[in-house]
């Protein structure tokens, strides 16, 4: 067997075992938690016969290992079952909520990187000066202030008082379903349809939650960028470059910053993954119909079909981000090849 095939097989087996373990752990924990998914369907005052009928129809009268095996069989065929709280197929629900979160998280990470990286570099270059203190203060606030409070204050000030941004939801109500659904991301779909009214409305609604999530990411990215840059700026090669008469800009961006790109790739991937699966509070405050809010609702009522499908999606997201990061390592640092 060629040497290049073995790492691929090992990696594929590792991914499969990781996802299987994640699903098994979530499944069995969900079954022992004090949730009653049947009561969520029929109500707490339903007759015992109705209760048992629904229990058998959902397969909950089977042993746990049989239930898990049936779920894996259905999952491999693309069938995640039906969500109790929506009545829809879980796969259909995910096709609607995932693009909404991807759109919000992507805009937020662009804002977070666009501000956090330059701020972190500037704080490192001007260490101990006012700009360094200002960046560290902004980072501290971003880590300390609850994001739901910032969201509520933002809605009061910029929506209710000033009217600069849109309110809750992804778009004004009279623009719902105004453009054909192609990607599920309203900004992209409205551009593809050439409908600028819908695009402006979607942009007004996404800008505030994206700015808040971007600010939270910026706080983390800027702090880590500052730490990485301080380490590089203290290296001997930087001193040598300065002695040779190279400009500060070339030393900072052409030498020191290039050596922190690999570390920054990891930080950005972690931040983006966190935004994709952890924007629950922001989605709740802004009534954003996204993945985080869907998963939280499923957890609250013990809807294990939806919870397991969401768990699988979260695991796949982080596995894919890790693979992309590994590829970036090989591109950014030839030594890793």
From TrEMBL:
Its cellular-component GO annotations read: plasma membrane
Localisation per UniProt entry: Cell membrane
A single GO molecular function term of this UniProt record: dipeptide transmembrane transporter activity
Tell me which UniProt keywords the record has, alphabetically: Cell membrane, Membrane, Transmembrane, Transmembrane helix, Transport
Q: Which residues cross the membrane?
A: 12-33, 104-125, 137-162, 202-221, 256-275, 306-329
Annotated ABC transmembrane type-1 domain ranges read: 98-325
Membrane topology, as annotated: Multi-pass membrane protein
Cite the SUPFAM superfamilies for this sequence: MetI-like
Q: Which family does it belong to?
A: Belongs to the binding-protein-dependent transport system permease family.
Protein name listed in UniProt: ABC transmembrane type-1 domain-containing protein
